[in-house]
Amino acid sequence: EGQVGTRLTRNTGQSTFAFLVDTVRDDDDTVVMQTVPISASREGRIAKLWRVDTRSGRRIAAGSSPMRDAAFLADRKGVVRVAFGVTADAETRIYVRDGDGEDWRLISSSKDDGLPMYPLELSDDGESMLVERAAASGPNGIWRVKLADGSREKLLDDPVSDPVRYYRNADGHIWAALFDDGTPRIGLIGDTPEGKLQRALEK
Fold first, then answer.
1. Over the chain, what HEC string results?
2. Residue 107 contacts residue 95 (beta carbons within 8 Å)
């Protein structure tokens, strides 16, 4: 396999790309990586997932992707819980799993209702995620989706504009979205200290 810097050095004769998936919030010495075979065919581009010790280069296998050319979300312990992407037929899919070695479950497909969802972040407890979801009519909204059953709750939308930017706090969590149709405005997600300060500054 390929290498990241000078640390990821094991070679099996197959060339790969290596990409950072996420850091691990509670462990400064570990990152989550994916390796993808270099292939001219999309059929060959299934990622393998790893947790990598940045000091020693030691890797722990963390499973593989349920679909080609996927992106991922990891929880605060470095466990990849969400995989998502678009198929060759333009179908948007979201898969979830309970942990390393567990089976992936498809919880969203744009084939079902024609409304794709795009994951943004996982909650701290790993039980839900924020997504941007298309609407049947009107702009995209921001929803909370439970990983256990795929149930959804709308948190924020705007009558005329899609979200054009997200604001994150020091822990990396989204607390607001910017909407802009010529007149920019900030919508708050939840009751947060950052949101309270934003509203106080707007007065």
1. CCCCCCCCCCCCCCCEEEEEEEEECCEEEEEEEEEEECCCCHHHCCCEEEEEECCCCCEEEEEECCCCCCEEEECCCCCEEEEEEECCCCCEEEEECCCCCCCCEEEEEHHHHCCCEEEEEECCCCCEEEEEECCCCCCCEEEEEECCCCCEEEEECCCCCCEEEEEECCCCCEEEEEEECCCEEEEECCCCHHHHHHHHHHC
2. yes
Contacting residues for 157 by C-beta, under 8 A, at least 6 apart: 135, 138, 139, 140, 141, 142, 187
Q: What is the pTM of this model?
A: 0.86
Residue 53 to residue 27: CA distance in whole angstroms: 10
Higher pLDDT, 44 or 71: 71
* CB of 122 closer than 8 Å to CB of 73: yes
User: What is the tens place of the pLDDT at every residue in 17-40?
Assistant: 899 999 988 888 999 999 988 865
User: Within 13 Å of residue 124, how many CA atoms lie on the same side as its CB?
Assistant: 6
Amino acid in the structure at residue 176: A
Q: How far apart are CA 154 and CA 48, in angstroms?
A: 33
pLDDT band at 15 (very low <50, low <70, confident <90, very high): confident
Q: What is the pLDDT of residue 40?
A: 55
